[in-house]
Backbone:
C-alpha cells in the first residue's frame, strides 16, 4: 500500500448558489464518500484549509516577499486535503473518481514518495 | 425540532437578524448561507459538531463581523460588536459524534427554537409588505427555501421571485422596522402572519395532487409555523388554534386523496384507513382549544367542516346538515365565490343534485369562477346524478378546458369516458 494525497480545489463561489436543502444533499454525498474510506481503513488523514487568509512567501532580489493569496477571483483554490492508502495509482484515481467534489471542482492526485 | 440545513438556516438568519437589525436581513442571509457552505466543507473532515446550530451561528457571526468591519459600519455600534463577539456555547467540533447522520443530517442536541424564530415570522409577514412579498420572504427566511424552490412552489419565475425578495428587504430597511414584536402590535401582526400561513398551506394543498414534491412541503411548513405560534403563550389566540386545527385535519386526509393510479380520489371513494389518525387527534385537540373565548373566525368554521369529515368513520356517516350549517355561516363572513361553490356542493349532498345545481347556477356567472375547473366538474357530477348525461358530458369537457392538476385531470377524463359510454348505452337501448 502507498499513500496518496487528494488535493481538492474549487472556485470560492462553487457552492454560493445552492439552497440549504441542496447543500445538505451535497454534504451528505461528501460524508458518505469520506465515511466509506474511513470504514475501509483507506483514510490516513484529512484536513480542510481555512478560506481566505493564505500567504505566499517568496524571495525576490534578496528580499523576502509575503503576499496574500494565492487566490484570484474565479480561479480554483486548494480547499482541502485527503491522504488515502491505495495499492496503486489506478486505485487512488478510482477513489478520486467517486468523490462528489468532481461536480464542483477538481482533484489533484499525487503519490506520497517514501524513499526506502 | 431543528433537523436539517433548511431549518437551521432559518434559525441562523433569525439570530443574526436580531443582532444586526432588520435593515441587515440580506447580510444575515448571506452569512447564514456562508456558514452552511463552511459546514459542508468542514464536517466531512472533522465530523458533525455536538451542537451544529451553535457551530453555524458562531461561523455566521464571525463572518458578519468581518464584513461589517470591512464596511466600517461597526465603528460606532459597540452593542452590535459585543453581541457578535459573544461566543456561542459549545461551538467547537464535537469529537466522536459521527461524521454524518444516517437519515438525518445532524446528530447531537437539536437547537431550541426560540423567540428569534418567532420574531422572524412576524418580520417576514410585516403588514407593510404586499401579500406576495410576505409569502416569498417567509419561504426564503423562515422556511429556508432557495429562490428556485420558491419559484417552483409558487409556480412563478426565478427572476420574479428574486426581484420580489430584494424589493421586500428594501422596504423593511427603508421603513426601519424593529425585530422584536411589541405586545401592542400582537393582534394586527398576528392576523397578517396567519394569513400568510393559510396561503402557504393552500398553495401546497391545492397542488398536493400535483407532481412536484416541493409543493407538498408547503403544507408541512405551514403547520410547523402555526405550531410555533401556537406554542407561544401570549400569541396562541383561538384563531391560531383554529388555523392549526384546520391544517392538521386537512393534512390528515392527504394520503388518501390520490389513489394508487395517481388519480384523484373523491371523498366518497377514499380509503379512510389511510387517513392519519395522529394528525386528526392533534387537529381535534387544537379545535378544542380554539373554542375557548367567543371569537369566531373563518378558520374556526373551516376547521369545523374539516372536523366533520375527519370524524366520519364512513362516507355515509358524514353529517351533511351540520356541514351545510357551517358553510352557511362561513359564506356570511367570507363571501367569496369559492366558498359559495363549496357550499353548493355540500348542499347537493344534503338536499339532492337539483338543489346543488340551482345553487351553482346562482353563482356561475361570477368572473372569479370563470376558469375554475371545480365548477364545471361539480356540475358534471350533479347532471350525471340527475340523469342528464348529455349535459354532464358537456360539463366534464368544459372542466378539461380549465387548468387543474394531473390527477384531477385524469379523474375528470375518466368520468367523461364513463358518462359518454352510459349515454351511448342509453341511446342504443
Residues:
Amino acid at each position: 500500500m502507498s499513500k496518496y494525497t487528494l488535493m481538492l480545489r474549487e472556485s470560492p463561489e462553487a457552492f454560493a448558489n445552492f439552497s440549504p436543502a441542496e447543500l445538505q444533499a451535497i454534504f451528505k454525498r461528501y460524508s458518505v464518500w469520506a465515511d466509506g474510506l474511513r470504514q475501509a481503513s483507506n483514510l490516513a488523514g484529512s484536513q480542510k484549509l481555512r478560506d481566505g487568509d493564505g500567504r505566499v512567501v517568496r524571495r525576490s532580489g534578496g528580499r523576502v516577499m509575503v503576499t496574500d493569496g494565492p487566490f484570484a477571483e474565479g480561479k480554483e483554490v486548494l480547499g482541502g486535503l485527503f491522504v488515502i492508502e491505495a495499492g496503486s495509482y489506478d486505485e487512488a484515481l478510482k477513489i478520486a473518481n467517486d468523490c462528489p467534489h468532481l461536480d464542483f471542482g477538481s482533484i489533484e492526485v499525487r503519490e506520497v514518495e517514501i524513499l526506502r | 425540532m431543528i433537523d436539517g440545513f433548511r431549518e437551521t438556516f432559518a434559525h441562523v438568519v433569525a439570530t443574526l437578524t436580531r443582532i444586526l437589525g432588520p435593515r441587515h436581513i440580506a447580510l444575515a442571509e448571506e452569512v447564514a448561507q456562508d456558514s452552511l457552505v463552511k459546514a459542508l466543507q468542514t464536517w466531512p473532515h472533522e465530523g458533525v459538531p455536538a451542537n451544529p446550530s451553535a457551530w453555524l451561528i458562531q461561523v455566521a457571526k464571525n463572518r458578519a463581523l468581518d464584513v461589517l468591519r470591512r464596511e466600517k459600519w461597526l465603528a460606532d455600534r459597540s452593542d452590535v460588536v459585543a453581541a457578535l463577539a459573544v461566543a456561542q456555547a459549545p461551538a467547537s467540533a464535537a469529537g466522536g459524534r459521527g461524521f454524518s447522520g444516517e437519515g438525518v443530517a445532524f446528530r447531537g442536541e437539536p437547537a431550541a427554537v426560540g423567540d428569534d424564530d418567532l420574531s422572524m415570522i412576524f418580520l417576514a409577514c410585516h403588514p407593510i409588505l404586499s401579500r406576495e412579498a410576505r409569502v416569498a420572504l417567509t419561504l426564503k427566511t423562515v422556511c429556508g427555501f432557495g429562490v428556485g424552490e420558491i419559484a417552483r412552489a409558487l409556480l412563478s419565475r426565478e427572476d420574479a421571485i428574486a426581484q420580489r425578495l430584494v424589493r421586500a428587504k428594501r422596504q423593511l430597511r427603508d421603513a426601519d422596522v424593529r425585530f422584536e414584536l411589541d405586545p401592542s402590535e400582537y393582534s394586527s401582526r398576528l392576523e397578517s402572519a396567519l394569513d400568510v400561513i393559510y396561503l402557504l398551506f393552500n398553495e401546497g394543498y391545492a397542488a398536493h395532487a400535483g407532481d412536484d414534491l416541493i409543493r407538498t412541503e408547503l403544507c408541512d411548513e405551514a403547520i410547523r409555523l402555526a405550531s410555533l405560534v401556537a406554542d407561544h403563550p401570549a400569541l396562541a389566540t383561538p384563531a391560531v388554534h383554529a388555523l392549526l386545527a384546520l391544517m392538521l385535519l386537512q393534512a390528515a386526509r392527504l394520503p388518501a386523496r390520490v389513489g394508487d393510479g395517481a388519480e384523484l380520489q373523491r371523498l366518497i371513494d377514499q380509503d379512510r384507513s389511510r387517513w392519519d389518525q395522529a394528525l386528526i387527534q392533534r387537529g381535534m385537540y387544537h379545535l378544542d382549544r380554539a373554542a375557548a373565548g367567543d371569537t369566531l373566525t373563518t378558520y374556526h368554521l373551516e376547521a369545523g367542516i374539516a372536523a366533520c369529515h375527519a370524524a366520519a368513520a364512513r362516507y355515509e356517516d358524514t353529517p351533511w346538515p351540520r356541514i351545510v350549517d357551517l358553510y352557511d355561516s362561513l359564506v356570511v363572513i367570507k363571501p367569496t365565490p369559492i366558498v359559495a361553490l363549496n357550499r353548493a356542493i355540500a348542499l347537493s349532498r344534503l338536499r339532492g343534485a337539483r338543489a346543488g345545481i340551482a345553487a351553482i347556477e346562482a353563482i356561475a356567472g361570477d368572473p372569479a369562477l370563470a376558469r375554475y375547473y371545480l365548477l364545471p366538474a361539480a356540475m358534471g357530477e350533479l347532471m350525471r346524478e340527475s340523469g342528464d348525461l348529455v349535459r354532464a358530458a358537456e360539463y366534464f369537457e368544459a372542466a378539461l378546458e380549465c387548468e387543474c392538476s394531473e390527477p384531477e385531470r385524469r379523474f375528470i377524463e375518466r368520468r367523461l369516458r364513463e358518462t359518454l359510454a352510459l349515454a351511448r348505452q342509453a341511446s342504443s337501448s
About this structure: Chain A touches chain B through 25 residues (CB under 8 Å). Chain A has a mean pLDDT of 89. Chain A has two helices and six strands.
